[in-house]
Protein 1
Amino acid sequence: MCTASNASEGSGTALEPLKLEPVERVRVTVLIDNYGDVFAPSQGPATRKHLLSPTPNPVMNGGATLVPLVAEHGFSALVEVETGSTRRRLLFDTGVSPGGLAHNLSLLDINPLEIDAIVLSHGHFDHTGGFAGLVERYGSHNLPILVHPHAFRHRRLRSGNGVIDLPTPSRRYFEQSGFQVSEAENPSFLLDGSVLVTGEIERKTSFETGFAGQEAEIGNGWIPDPLVLDDQALVISVRNLGLVVITGCGHAGIINTCQYARYLTGQSKIAAAAGGFHLSSVRDPIALAQVVEAFEDLDPGYLMPGHCTGLQATFAMMERFGSRVIPSLVGTTLTLG
Ligand SMILES: [Fe+2]
């Protein structure tokens, strides 16, 4: 068990970089992502498990079929940090469907009862829906959940197709299920100071403009809420390698997020950036090129784009960075250190 400690209390500001405890090794396992491929090979520092679960199905002779890891529009990752003989585990997001994450955890033989803490990247339903299956399969959880307060905002999305109500996570559900909800807007540390949760991320680039069309219900009305200020990332410092930055949807912009991680920690080397980079909806090829160009300057060791990054942006990154780009297929484990 662990509790979140607020980095703004006694740990200095970014002018005095936050002291992020380095780890010897980090493992990021993609538990839920938009994409799966049961034939994709392991790649560089990333291994891929091809697991099949025997499942009853009357269509088949013998009454059973084989079901792989579930891919769905959403994101969830298991983040494991190791120092010496100590290994700590953190769950980052839970995917979209009630049962997808629970299915994949079972198939990957990961016991959620061995997880030390949960962080929600933001409140969108494709990152928070999988709690239901966790609770149903494993019972109530006496685990801390770290989240930005805006994650509980009731939101809707206005587009050319009309207005879509966005399902909102219920703080009451979490608490009734035994979780300890901790809200923070500022940077926080978890797992003995080895994981930095950014809190709100500074928006500095001109080409990362947030989530157009999102509105939030405040009081009796709706206000534009394109910035998704609840969007936060995880930052881990791997000894002798640099920072590993993990985003959920990357609504703050993946470049803003990487730059903010550097700003907070005072460390410049990005060993890897992984997760949703939120480029799928970018229609402006110039903005997309600017992101790739900015990655050139950041010079990350690896990119593991997934979820809402989109194929066009992923291909653009692969074209520029070659084998340093590792698609975030469900079941992929990136190990650094
Ligand atoms: Fe998302």
Protein 2
Amino acid sequence: MLTAENYGYSGIVQLPQDIELLRTQTRRLVDRDLRPRTLEIERERKIPEELVATLRELGYFGITIPERYGGLGLSTLAHAVLQEELGRAHAAFNMLISGNNGIGVMGLVLAGSEEQKERWLPRLASGEWIAAFALTEPNAGSDAQAIEARAVRDGDRFILNGTKHYISRGDIADLVTVFAVTDPATRARGGITAFVVERGTPGFRVARIQDSMGSDVIKQAELVFEDCPVPAGNVVGEIGQGFATAMRILDLGRLSLAARCLGTMEELLSVSVAHAKNRVQFKKPIAEQPAIQHMLADTATDIAMLRPALYTAASRRDAGETVTQDAAMLKLYASEALGRAADRAVQIHGGMGFMRDCVVEGIYREARMMRIVEGTSEIQRMLIARGVLEGQR
Ligand SMILES: Cc1cc2nc3c(=O)[nH]c(=O)nc-3n(C[C@H](O)[C@H](O)[C@H](O)COP(=O)(O)OP(=O)(O)OC[C@H]3O[C@@H](n4cnc5c(N)ncnc54)[C@H](O)[C@@H]3O)c2cc1C
């Protein structure tokens, strides 16, 4: 059910009933158990254990993992809706489960062998294990093809050497999908391979946690691989096809990020409306000031534009279409719109919006990463323009 608090709902997209039901359940969980803990989580830099346990019990670590491996096996559309709802709570909830539902495991789900899926997916679906995705390196960020991590075949194993950084959940991950060069001559055209590396593999260590301007509830870490032996059975997909796999994973990741931005914008609008109605200056609520109303209107408009576009792209992906272009557009639009919405929300709250005990302050800082992760805004524009020039749109 979409409620009156769901500001900005355009009414354009009618979702299937089962997805509406899932939305209602998640909405209840978010409003009853998660949202009230936002400031505590921000302060303590930790999600309370009982809430992690709740997410595990309710299956949120396995939203996208097929049912036969213990997941919920939900569609891209349903996943988007659940992330949107969770996006109204502290960003750490979506970040915690995003590896297991997205970039950390999608390589296995999309390209893994039956044996690999049976071996790893059940533990990830239950949330017993946490997954991470390690592509970025100190010398290869936007230009991911330039990675230097090297995996050299040695009988029935590969010897992995290299450094990955800014890896979300890298410090807590039990399983990392790592990308490394297996053929320097061909690199992205057949020379980059995806591997599953388990925590505890000799030569694999978390070198350091990288403190950030965000809440750091879910952290980024530098991972080092030194003569790390990875069994050949841990190669995900075909040898040499890792770069193509990474790009497929990122298409989905970008839809997910758009959904998370959307939910956070709804939260910003909701708390801004409440504050604007409540805060009296010049003997009347600031909500009566056109300047405040315009800010609320702009955020509501961004929400209304984004939601149907996101649901449409997710549905198209569920129908088997390639959504690279849509995912890039949605990630670009949503992350930039979230930045604007967070800035307006701080402004509407005045001095309070700058203070640590105000929800919008934390959202403002955390939101900044959305224009950087999984391809910066500049890289999304580059991808979109490439598609446009090829006549896609
Ligand atoms: C919070 C956070 C979490 C992350 N989590 C992960 C993770 O889990 N796994 C992972 O692998 N990586 C992760 N990353 C890394 C992230 O994907 C990279 O930071 C991002 O892709 C940008 O790379 P970079 O930081 O090296 O910036 P650079 O590539 O050095 O870019 C610097 C600037 O140059 C611009 N630029 C670069 N090339 C071009 C171009 N051709 N045209 C125009 N502008 C250009 C960029 O847009 C940017 O503004 C994370 C990063 C952050 C901040």
